[in-house]
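Troubleshooting: if your tokenizer reports a length mismatch, compare your output against this known-good record of 363 residues.
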Amino acid sequence: MDRRSFLLGTTTLALSQVIIGCETKQAPLNVQLLKNSIPGQIVNQFRKSVESGGKLKFTPIDQIEALFKLLQTWQKPPNNKNQKLFPANLVTLGDYWLQAAINQKLIQPLSTDNIKNLANLDEKWQQLVKHDQEGKIWGIPYRWGNTVIVYNQEKFEKLGWKPRDWSDLWRSELENRISLLNHPREVIGLVLKKLGKSYNTENINQISSLESELQALNKQVKFYDSTNYLEPLIIGDTWLAVGWSNDIIGMINRYQKFTAVVPQSGTAIWTDLWVSPTGVSNDILAYKWLDFCLQPNTSKQIALLTKSNSPIDNNIAIRDIQKPLQNLLLNNSEVFAKSEFLLPLPPAVTKEYEYLFMKMKKS
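Known-good structure output:
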């Protein structure tokens, strides 16, 4: 399950796949987090900094979809009068799921008065988590990544050039050599970016060149998939792929012949956030954890240890990052300024994206 598979128009999800342990007593701080998104060292450092010690509970969950389903389950009445479910104080959620969680009243705003380090986030992150005119904060980002281009260096050495931007995907040498995500917003979004538009453009039917650009790109593509899109690259069926940095970093670490680049005209950003389930009474300890994650040194450690990016400008030095990963993890401020979160679109516009994507793949 990829991190952006959920359609924001969906209001109900099957809950039978989520296994929930019923507890008799809730820990002072109960955190349900995305697996591998917070290093154990960070939890241990926090544990030592508070008096609660062993009373902290951090439970890793494999997928963001499962965390979203937990948020839904906690808002349903218990099936048995003797059964009581204790929601976690804080939960990991992806930015792509945030608006759906707000709309379904699964999460509640955080108390900004209790988050002293909130000012460490710049305006781009503040805008992402506000989502309304009242300035309420609905989540705290703790790491992020983006959509990038990964390619086989050996193949491109023979071609005599290296991919640098989205426009390179249309070059004739790459016909039938590309793996793309099977995702309308990502694929149409990169074409919009090539045309100087936003990922979040709503009037796509008024962009005269969009459909012809999509058809031309489709001729370059050998494979669409959001889960196994790197396999064709690894076995040599494709020379280049577009995908999410958290997937691609693992492959680059394993196979030295691959490298990746963040497109110069800007790309799509994803981020993992802390959110608070509706109805949970968060005490000082939960806000201490949020503040701890927003400390520059903690944020830097999370980024380096999980091979992701920090939402805080903490001046990570080039020597801190392995050379193969420097293209992805050393932030270019100009490229970052051009990059965007995938924001919710009206249902009618979402259907237009899906229709155009299906039409593209059939061309």
